Structures are given as structure tokens and as C-alpha cells.
Amino acid sequence: MSKTYELARIALTFLFTHKPSTVISTAPTFDQVEKQLWKEIHTAHTNAKIPLGGKLTSTQLDIDPNRKWFAYGFATKPDTVTGEATEMQGYHNEWVLIIFDEAAGIQPQIWKAVESLLTNPQCKIIACGNPTSSTGTFADLDNDPTWNHINISVLDTRILKKAGR
User: Fold this and answer.
1) Which helix (H) or strand (E) holds 25?
2) Which residue stretches of the chain are H helix?
3) CB under 8 Å to 135, separation ≥6 — which residues?
4) Is 124's pLDDT higher than 90?
5) Number of other CB atoms surrounding residue 114 within 10 Å
6) Domains of the chain by range and CATH?
């Protein structure tokens, strides 16, 4: 299974087991959001053994908009005027999950903006990606004891095992 496959299932599990909850996903580009993570979310939602419900669009899943119970995926970048990532702010709820897919490519201002969403212990963040750089916010997490690190070798994936490697 791929990182993105797992992230999609984590997103849906969080959304449907924490009521009401908000799941926000982002990646460096909109293509990565829509054609990778949200493609997997669509597959998992469609193939669920128990119908999950909600209104699913290309990058949004609304369960109950009146209760702020939804998942939304978008790519963002710092504002051209302020240099801050204001588009990433304002997603508050009792339960919040932020997903950074391809986290090595997420700009520092986005990481900073997400801190304002982590307002209580029920608010979580997952940063997933390949270590493509030895510098930057994602790389710095390796030395941060407040983060739970899970390192998975490509040699441990089912895809390679199926290929006989």
C-alpha cells in the first residue's frame, strides 16, 4: 500500500469516527491534491463495505455542513501581499485533522499557519512524504521529539513484495 492509499483511509476514518470533525488536506500542487490523495479518498469512499454517505465532489466531502462536518482538499501558497498563508486559517472544530501530503514540498508559511488550527488535543496533523531534502520544516521534524515518527522503508511495501523483490 502506498502512503497516499493509507492517508485516504485515515482521512475517512477520522471524519466518520469523530463527530463533528473537519479534515483538511493539502500538498504542494493542486494536481497532487486532486489526482493523488482525493482520487484515493474517492476510491475508498466508493468501495467502503458500509455506505459512508455524504456529498462527495472532486476535493470535498460534506457530511453535515451545518455542523462543520466535512473534508476538504486544496493546495495553498503564501499570499502575495502579506507573505502569510491566510487561506489555511479558520478551519476550527472540536475535531480537526490536517494532512500534509508530500510534506517536504509544503512551504514554511503553511506549516506556521496550521499551528493556529491545533487549538486543542483533539486537533491532529499528519505530515507524510519522502525525505527529498535534508533542510526545511519537514526535515527538521526528524529532530523534534514532540512529533511521533514512523519511518517505512520502500522495501517494506506490499507493491515490491508482490513484484517479487
Assistant:
1) strand 21-26
2) 3-17, 30-32, 38-46, 108-115, 137-140, 158-162
3) none
4) yes
5) 22
6) 3-162 (3.40.50.300)
